[in-house]
Amino acid sequence: MNITKSDLLGIAAKPAQYPEAGPPEIAFAGRSNVGKSSLLNLLTGRKALARVSGSPGKTRTINFYTVNDDAFRIVDLPGYGYAKVSKSVSASWGDMIEAYLKKRDTLVKVVLLADIRHAPSAQDIQMYDWLKSYGLDGIIAATKADKISRNALEKQIALIRKTLGAKDAVIVPVSALKRTGVKELLAEIELALTPGTPEEV
Ligand code: GDP
């Protein structure tokens, strides 16, 4: 699969503001600065689909994009875990994300992004636990893969798998800088979008 076309469809902070549900949605989640905007721009071949943040944690909305004439949608969830926001703001981000996970019937999968260099944080674990409980888990993108050696790759992937308790997940190393991992990630997304894949039976 290739993404040939993508456009912003809507921006929402609460369910009433979501665009009307239509084709299946694939959402992307991760802590701020994990490289989500860079990856989304690379996936969609657009320079400015998602803004690469000069100031991490700025995006506090759920952004919906229509892809390939609305064949499916990409949903950019707000980055979490930015140290400088207050507890109440970070709680409202959690509410925003959980409301979407809980309420959106057309959501089929959430790609969780984790920096390949580090063990996932407590919030990453919380996020992945949510995904498991809603049956949306299974694809993890390990970002900034250019920052570690090939030798360290398997070890870091194992660490991410173990920390998140993601036994059966597909973990795809990606680098927006080197433009690697895109084909593999799109293949996993395509599989998730295909009705009748084992996960959906
Ligand atoms: P977001 O906050 O998750 O949307 O992250 P951004 O896409 O804004 O990226 C955060 C920082 O990481 C920026 O300085 C990017 O240039 C950098 N970055 C993103 N992806 C990569 C990558 O694949 N490799 C490297 N080395 N840096 C990256």
Task: Please tell me about this protein's structure.
With 201 residues, the protein is α/β, with parallel strands linked by helices. The protein has a single domain (6-193), classed as Rossmann fold. It has helices spanning 36-44, 87-103, 122-133, 150-164, 182-193; strands spanning 6-12, 25-29, 62-67, 72-76, 107-115, 139-143, 170-173. It has a 7-stranded mixed beta sheet with strand order 1-3-4-2-5-6-7, with helices on both faces. Helix 3 links the parallel strand 5 (107-115) and strand 6 (139-143). It is globular and about 45 Å long. The two termini are 22 Å apart. The structure holds guanosine-5'-diphosphate. Residues 30, 32-38, 52-53, 56, 79, 143-144, 146-147, 175-177 line the site of guanosine-5'-diphosphate.
Features:
single chain; 201 residues; alpha/beta; Rossmann fold; seven-stranded mixed beta sheet; 20% strand; binds guanosine-5'-diphosphate
Distance between the termini: 22 Å
Total beta strands: 7
Q: What is the count of distinct domains? A: 1
Please state the overall shape, judged from the principal axes of the Cα atoms. globular
Mean pLDDT score: 90
The helix/strand class is alpha/beta
**Percentage of residues in DSSP E strands:** 15-25%
Order of helices and strands: EEHEEHEHEHEH
Question: How large, in whole angstroms, is the Cα Rg?
Answer: 16 Å
Task: Provide a brief overview of the structure.
Helices cover about 30% and strands about 20% of the residues. By secondary structure, the protein is of the alpha/beta class. The chain has a single domain, classed as 3-Layer(aba) Sandwich (Rossmann fold).
